[in-house]
Amino acid sequence: MRHKLHQIALVFVGVVAGVLLSLHLSAVANKDSLGPLPVEELRAFAEVYGRIKSDYVEPVDDKKLITEAINGMLTGLDPHSAYLDQEAYRELQVGTQGEFGGLGIEVGMEDGFVKIISPIEDTPAHRAGLKAGDLIIKLDDTSVKGMSLNEAVKRMRGKPNTQITLTVLRKGEPKPFVVTLTRAIIKIQSVKSKLIEPDYAYIRVTQFQEHTGENLVKAIQNLYKQNQRDLKGLVLDLRNDPGGLLNGAVAVAAAFLPKDVLVVYTDGRTEDSKMRLTASAENYLRSPHRRDYLKDLPAQVKTVPMVVLVNGGTASASEIVAGALQDHKRAVVMGTPTFGKGSVQTILPLGNNTAIKLTTARYYTPSGRSIQAKGIIPDIVVEDPANSSLEAMRVREADLERHLSNGQEGDKKDKEAPANKASGTTPQGDKPKDEAPESAQPRKPTEFGSKDDYQLAQALNLLKGLNIIAK
């Protein structure tokens, strides 16, 4: 039996070696191509595979072993690369269209636990007061330690009107607290807008989706119609916007920038990963046959004084928008430093309706700044007094284990950032104590766009001041 398993393992390692050899041949033209095949490591892999098949306490299916090996390869790279099985791949496709069943939180993985990167507005998680940086340590009665991120997401998503109990650890709280959420169909309204007062408009983008650009145009048209004359100022709110589709970000930036100026560029090892995306229709329309909806915008939207609000939950695509408007001096960026997710994930289908999400490049602002692990630094730093403790303990890209380096300033700054963690997690290596959690009502966050929104009030004051100076 052992001899047979040894033969199976050798065949398996031969298959892996063949795949690596084909990759080597396809990368011959690249100076950073694969070196000699790692024979010793492949032999060790085959031996482990064989030992599991022969000695593990229960029989293990080959498919499970190979799937977990793929998972391990990808999660060991950085916090954003992942294997997407059929269900995860389908949910990804559905989520970008703005509707899915679940709790409404953007999550990541740290030290084996699930971290909340950002709660999505008007969802069960947001209404319950969950905050960025909260650490989910249990889903119902099951510890998340040892789960993959995909497994945890699957458990949190489910049929509407069903309940799930989360045990949450929060920085500053003496014990974990328990919150029970009712799943709902998450219909994300990606663009919200209103007149703050006559002549001053507020637009909030909560996430970049397939139709965000078109929704932005409709919102701007409605604002000008309500105001019945040109605006004197506009606030674009990107706080707690976790990102989304790249073309949506280019569309939003292009709405306020001159035609054809550079919005963002990417750089990676392959030619496909080197892109320069400008404020032109071919870079934000999903199909070349679709009508250019940005042509319907009022001409004054290109020159109206603007403030962009950002915070530590402003990530990825929203950082691209903030960086582009800042570099072109089109808007004043106000708030607190952003999350710092400046890496590009490419979805690579594998067949059988599965895929891998692989980090393939870094994002750079028009002036050449790398966003990765640094983020966008506001022109004017304004903290919300009501949320100052939340910002202090908010997790950012540089806090995540195995985060990709900035690529410009070396690793020193990136390595220093996690040492000053205040992210709502236990220190690396520590485990949450096995104490009985207590029920607690999480504190409600400030409602963005409300009369109590301190940062919005400061943005409005700045816009009024700019108008006085202009006169």
TrEMBL record:
Under SMART domains, the record lists: PDZ (SM00228), TSPc (SM00245)
Q: Where is the composition biased (Basic and acidic residues)?
A: 403-418
Annotated spans, Disordered: 403-452
Instruction: Cite a single Pfam family from the UniProt record.
Output: Peptidase_S41
Which GO molecular-function terms appear in the entry?
A: endopeptidase activity; serine-type peptidase activity
* Family the entry assigns: Belongs to the peptidase S41A family.
* Name used for this protein in its record: S41 family peptidase
Question: What is the organism of origin for this protein?
Answer: Pelomicrobium methylotrophicum
Classification of source organism: Bacteria, Pseudomonadati, Pseudomonadota, Hydrogenophilia, Hydrogenophilia incertae sedis
